[in-house]
Design a protein that fits this description.
The protein has no helices and 7 strands. With 94 residues, it is mainly β. It has a single domain (2-85), classed as Sandwich (Immunoglobulin-like). A hairpin with a 6-residue loop joins strand 1 and strand 2. It is globular, with a radius of gyration of 13 Å.
């Protein structure tokens, strides 16, 4: 399925793709400049966004809006994982 998420920044498009147990969050910056955005991910509280290309685990989603900053024309693709399913091969940022 495809679900668009409201973004606090009109230059940033965010949506979820879901298939069976797989949940992917896509965040895209359509500006040539760096842009911050806040996303309401509270429905996914306790999950960790794990970046799909590098395997970097981002901080867990909580009740507050989730803040991301994207570079010009940048994007993130995250798999939203429960703590128990975050594999040992993910990279934890320093």
């Amino acid at each position: 399925s495809y679900t668009e998420l409201p973004s606090s920044n009109p230059a940033v498009l965010a949506f979820l793709r879901e298939y069976e147990d797989d949940l992917v969050l896509c965040v895209n910056n359509f500006s040539r400049f760096a842009q911050p955005t806040e996303l309401d991910l509270s429905a996914f509280g306790g999950r960790h966004p794990v970046e799909l290309f590098g395997g970097v685990r981002f901080p867990a989603v909580g009740e507050l809006p989730y803040l991301l900053t994207l570079g010009g024309h940048g994007f993130y693709w995250f798999r939203l994982r429960h703590e128990s399913t975050v594999s040992s091969d993910t990279v934890t940022p320093p």
